[in-house]
Amino acid sequence: NIDIASPSLRERFKLFTIIVFGETIVGVVAGLSRHHHLDLIIGISGALGLILAFCLWWIYFDSSSDHPVKNKASWLYLWMLIHLPIWIGITAIGPSVLNIISLEDLIIPTEVLWLLVGSIALALFSIGIFVYSLDVGKQYKMSYRKGSFLLFGLSGFTLIFLILEELLTSIILLLGLFIILLIPLLYTLYIRVKIPEKPQGN
């Protein structure tokens, strides 16, 4: 048994993921730059757009925590391939938030709504598979398994915003997505408190 996903390979994937997150931030900044006069609504929309990106960043990197991939070639292939929909989901957040910030009113076009909600759902579902593919210690195994299913459930729940399209404004949508992303963040904090890492050498 060997770690077929070497630390250097995992590091390269993480570095590329950071670049993808950077594109999302660029999209938010580009949306803000289109307004000559910023007001409270535009400022809140931009802040929430950045918060969505940072929440996904936290979920991804806090979940990985330098854990190796499960020690089978099939898990390695899955681990590598699942990064593609993760990157697609994260990348799509940028232009969708850009379009929301660029709106002259609070009414969200259907295509922008589908793009943002779909990208968040895709990213959450893919990160759930990513988490499931990790080889974690015995003390974390059950918690990580529950965490992956939590991400699957939240990705499906996110789609409810598509049904509620008529009731949504841009602020309500961004705030609702933030609340959904806050749930796995609180769960990871709960795991850290409940199951502290073992000291090195034990």
Characterize the overall form: elongated
The low-confidence parts are none
Rg (C-alpha, Å): 18 Å
Percentage of residues assigned to helices: over 70%
Descriptive report:
By secondary structure, this protein is an all-alpha fold. The chain is built from 8 helices and no strands. The two termini are 21 Å apart.
Keywords:
mainly alpha
Please write out the topology.
Elements lengths: L6 H27 L6 H25 L8 H9 L1 H19 L8 H23 L5 H21 L1 H4 L6 H25 L8
Helix pairs in contact: 1-2, 1-4, 2-4, 2-5, 2-8, 4-5, 5-6, 6-8
How would you briefly describe this protein structure?
This protein is mostly helical. The chain has eight helices and no strands.
